[in-house]
Amino acid sequence: MSETTNRPYHHGDLRHALIDTALAMLAADQNWTFTLREVARRTGVSHAAPYKHFRDKEALLRELARIGFVQLGQSMAHAMSADTFSVREKFVAAAQACIDFAIHNPGLYRLMFSSDADKTIDSQLHDAAMNTFGLLLRLLEEGQRDGSFRPIAMSAQAAASWAQVHGLAMLAINHQLLEEKVGAAPIPAALEVLLDGMCCGVSNQQKP
């Protein structure tokens, strides 16, 4: 595990200090094998201090994942906020934002979709994940409403979209999008294929 400079913690918001330390460790090490004891040491507090805010390490990990989903949702919403974007352009922008988030935060992204971020036992984590997924659902609804997307089951379009974008993100952070396998620009190409299958009158749609 990589070392960070210890800065003794004296006052302020201990909960956020612990979260910031854990996020920094996750980013540096690209895994979450650290212990609460190590998080406390690097935050500069006693080994017992984290338990005032987190019952155990798993509770801390779920909070990190919740923060990740909030940040991911913000990135996606910002990316597709331009008023001049077509639905297709919004989809590409949101998908690229998701993949970029994963590339820049690989450890956090893996945690968000791991079994250690159990959404069934943490309502706040569940809500954060569903709010982010809701961005996709609302975009698909908009596309079906204005005739951009084919009028098929929303759940099928959501599953196909999520699988494609998440799969590309995981391949990207694992350095598996090799040019000799998938060409020089695999992400835009894959999104084009997905959208061509989802869109009505593809030849008449404005492509990004």
UniProtKB/TrEMBL annotation:
UniProt keywords, alphabetically: DNA-binding, Transcription, Transcription regulation
Gene3D superfamilies according to UniProt: Tetracycline Repressor, domain 2
Record domain HTH tetR-type: where: 12-72
Taxonomic superkingdom: Bacteria
Keyword Transit peptide in record: no
GO molecular function, one term: transcription cis-regulatory region binding
Entry protein name: TetR family transcriptional regulator
Species, as recorded: Acetobacter pasteurianus NBRC 3188
Gene: tetR
